[in-house]
């Protein structure tokens, strides 16, 4: 089903925010009036999940919503006529070309920032850097060649003594570095239970493989 310009615009805002957004904020901060008809269509297509929040409601992009936006970017987003709509279509086309060229996903580009409080602690930063170095070392031992894919299952097994939350923080930090790429398994039916458990969730997308040394 074709999306309207309003529905596409709302999904793009949810994508950029990477988190739940109040319905009132969509209107006040972004100028998007999501009518009950628009909301019902996005909910029925399972592209957006809506929850009550006091006197208003919140919206969040689903996995299917992320995938649909990626398709829209490749095929041409629905946008209002005029200069703004034209600029949006051009930007979406450029993002689609970048994803195709680098094998990145939308979730890689619009990952929410980590809380400032955690980043401000010197001891946390020092510890995180140490774990990142260990991940790089383990990757080198496991990869068949620089830039080769290594499953997070094997990586976590090699560094099993590192607490899960610490490992996740290190992987998220690495994912923002230019020589690192993380991707999901294309064939979801091939995943074992341990692969699903080892996955790292970034922007509602489960990542299963890591490559370092990518240029």
> How is the largest sheet built, in terms of strand order?
1-3-2
Q: For the report, how would you describe the main beta sheet?
A: 3 strands, antiparallel
Helix tally equals 11
Shape, please?
Answer: elongated
Give, in order, the helices and strands: HEHHEEHHHHHEHHEHEEE
> Could you list the spans in which at least 5 consecutive residues all have pLDDT below 50?
115-120
Using only C-alpha atoms, the radius of gyration works out to 19 Å
Provide the residue-averaged pLDDT.
84
**N→C terminal distance:** 38 Å
- Tell me the helix content: 40-55%
Task: Please report which band the strand proportion falls in: under 5%, 5-15%, 15-25%, 25-35%, 35-45% or over 45%.
Answer: 5-15%
SS-derived structural category:
alpha+beta
* Multimerization state: single chain
Count of DSSP strands: 8
Question: Could you characterize what this model shows?
Answer:
This protein has 215 residues and is α+β, with helices and mostly antiparallel strands. It has 11 helices and 8 strands. Helix 4 crosses helix 5 (83-102) and helix 8 packs across helix 10 (164-175). The two termini are 38 Å apart. Mean pLDDT is 84; it is low at 115-120.
Sum this structure up briefly:
Helices cover 54% and strands 14% of the residues. The protein is built from eleven helices and eight strands.
